[in-house]
Amino acid sequence: MRCFKSALTLALLASATTAFAQGTITAGGASYVQTASHWDTSPEANFTGVGTGDQLFESGWWFRVEGDTQETVFTAPTTTNYTGAVATIAWTDLGGRGLGVAKTITLTSAGAGTGEAGTTIAVTNNGAAAITLHLFNMVDLDVNGTAGTDNAILVQPNNYIRVNDATAGQCEYRAPGAVAYQVLPFNATADVAAQLSNTTVTNFPNTGLPFGPGDFTGGFQWTLQLAPGATGTVRLFIACNTTATPVSLQRFQVD
């Protein structure tokens, strides 16, 4: 009975942590949601008010320090704040690896049925040794609110993808500074999220485009060299029925 109580307590604590980490940001009629079940290897997210239905099924982040034998998903954060059009999310020690992470999501909407979610992730190496850090984002887009009817092309190697629904609507997936991408059809055991969640090292091979029609999942990979105390920053944009932020207005760096 003592073991049962301990397990129940741990389950309740985990549930409370993920519940506090969920939230919604809004801009005009656009809404971006990270749900309570976002912080695992099937990272649920919603992007509505930027076209017909919900344009986004999943969007999440993984990391790997060079020398690791697999990638690790970003689990529930230390702190979160969802206010207006901005979410600020932080990890004091991501994965117990001495990584301090600050994540900001900013939602913009220039008009009805359009919007962009821009994400900035700053990672600080709080360890005593230099590291090579690989960051990964994956998305499952359902353009026009439907799965299975999406087509995708590579707009710019290897960090800019455009996804169109066969009927109407489009979303742009852009990752300045990314070194590689991968696109695969949705499949719980073989899509992009599954590749990042298995027990082997994944490096995206720049394959899968052009894609479709089908149920799109895609991902980008960045590689950062971080000395002790250094901070590396990456940016990601998901824009639906509008053009993603031009490179000239983007900023990314390693300090």
Molecular structure report:
The structure is a single chain. The chain has 255 residues and is mostly beta strands. It has two helices and 18 strands. The chain is globular, with a radius of gyration of 18 Å. It starts with a helix and ends with a strand. The N terminus and C terminus are likely disordered.
Keywords:
2 helices; 255 residues; Beta-galactosidase, Chain A, domain 5; disordered N terminus; 10-stranded antiparallel β-sheet; disordered C terminus; mainly beta
Q: What is the structure about, briefly put?
A:
This protein has 255 residues and is mainly beta.
SSE inventory with pairings:
Layout: H1 2-21, E1 23-27, E2 30-34, E3 45-48, E4 56-65, E5 72-73, E6 79-83, E7 86-91, E8 99-108, E9 115-125, E10 131-141, E11 150-156, E12 160-165, E13 170-174, E14 180-185, H2 192-197, E15 211-214, E16 216-226, E17 231-240, E18 253-254
Antiparallel strand pairs: 1-2, 2-3, 4-5, 4-10, 6-7, 7-8, 8-9, 9-17, 10-16, 11-12, 11-15, 12-13, 13-17, 14-16, 17-18
Question: What spatial form do the alpha-carbon principal axes imply?
Answer: globular
Q: Which ranges are low-confidence, i.e. pLDDT below 50, for 5 or more consecutive residues? A: 1-16, 248-253
What is the averaged pLDDT score? 91
CATH superfamily: Glycoside hydrolase, family 65, N-terminal domain
By DSSP, the count of extended strands is 18
Q: Can you summarize the main beta sheet?
A: 10 strands, antiparallel
Helix content: 10-25%
Taken together, the total number of domains comes to: 1
Which CATH class is shown? Mainly Beta
Distance, first to last CA: 52 Å
Order of SSEs, N→C?
HEEEEEEEEEEEEEEHEEEE
CATH topology description: Beta-galactosidase, Chain A, domain 5
Cα gyration radius (Å): 18 Å
Strand percentage: over 45%
What is the annotated CATH architecture?
A: Distorted Sandwich
Helical element count?
2
